[in-house]
Amino acid sequence: MIKIAASMPAEYRDASSEELARRIAAAKESLGSRLLILGHHYQMDEVMDFADARGDSFGLSKIAAEQRDAEIVVFCGVHFMAESADILTGPEQRVILPDLSAGCSMADMADIDQVEAAWADLATIVDIERVVPITYMNSTAAIKAFVGRHGGAVCTSSNARAVLAWALGDEKASARGDRVFFLPDQHLGRNTALSMGYDQEELVLWDPAQPLGGQMSDVIEQSRVLLWKGHCSVHGRFTIDQVRRFREENPEGKVIVHPECTQDVVESADAWGSTDFLIRWIEAAPIGTVVTIGTEVHLVSRLAKEHPELTITCLDDEVCPCITMARIDAPHLAWVLEEAMEGRIRNQITVDPETARWSLVALERMLEIT
Ligand code: 13P
Ligand code: SF4
């Protein structure tokens, strides 16, 4: 049976922001402790104002895993995050994504059929038992399940280094394999591996559109980290020219960026790290600091508002919102909450049990590592 998702009635789109805020607050009050609203840092203020907890994808996944009380979890973020919340919450808890079209273009760049085909290709060149698949949180549940089944783990931008060290070994622990197959963000994989001391030659790009990822077999044999050719279209907009321009205009200014930016941008920055790292950097900055941030603009604008003692700008002055994150807006939030009040669960995210089982293995490995 094909289920057609109900669409939001026009009255929500037409309502004023004041009315929507009043209705969201009333629905929250009425649902009380049955409801938990989680908000990713890239969400707009009209939504974030109502979040019970804010976080990056790692922080929110931990909250989803730890809390068992709320019967309804409204996830204000994108699809892969709501899937992870569904996997990490209990069977009686229901996860809602207010707008089902809030996807992530990076997650869409690794399709499970392509990944299965790449894995089979790789097995013709190297001992596949010694390849550890690692997927960034920004991937579908199907990819997380693939990784779980093949002995790998999920990572986020907060813990990619620890997860890579777990896979490839370091002074504290022995290696779980000879190489990592890193999905789907080449930049997070490359920036993290370079910062750990791996050489550029050990990092090999795997283009899923080409036979054998577009590489010669000896290059693959010498690799330590195979990087899936995926990227974030938002963070991919930041350029080294923007950094140069900012530095010319602000010789004392600082540049901080997210690791989804390209290698040259990350290397030219004063500091780089996960969303949570960027927030902590700002919170610790001395009064008067001039800083430009290479990450999603809703977060940058919120930080600028919350820290008037600093001068904060977005590295891309043409402004680059994540348009899919912005699909979660006050009308959709008001709609799903009012429907839930009436006992109707709209836009529920459910991951099938087999996929959920193996995704959970990969997610729990991450939570154990970090
Ligand atoms: P975080 O892992 O920092 O939450 O980032 C998620 C994301 O989508 C960044 O583009
Ligand atoms: Fe995906 Fe990039 Fe948006 Fe993050 S900012 S959700 S990686 S498209």
Describe this structure in words.
The protein has 370 residues and is of the alpha/beta class. The protein folds into three domains: 122 residues, 3-Layer(aba) Sandwich (Rossmann fold), CATH 3.40.50; 127 residues, NadA-like (Rossmann fold, 3-Layer(aba) Sandwich), CATH 3.40.50.10800; 80 residues, 3-Layer(aba) Sandwich (Rossmann fold). Helix content is 42%, strand content 15%. It has 16 helices and 13 strands. The strands form three sheets. Strands 6-5-7-9-8 form a five-stranded parallel β-sheet, sandwiched between helices. Helix 3 links the parallel strand 1 and strand 2. Helix 2 runs parallel beside helix 15, helix 5 packs across helix 16 and helix 7 crosses helix 16. The longest helix has 17 residues. The radius of gyration is 21 Å and the shape is globular. The two termini are 41 Å apart. The mean pLDDT is 95. The site of iron/sulfur cluster has 12 residues, from loops.
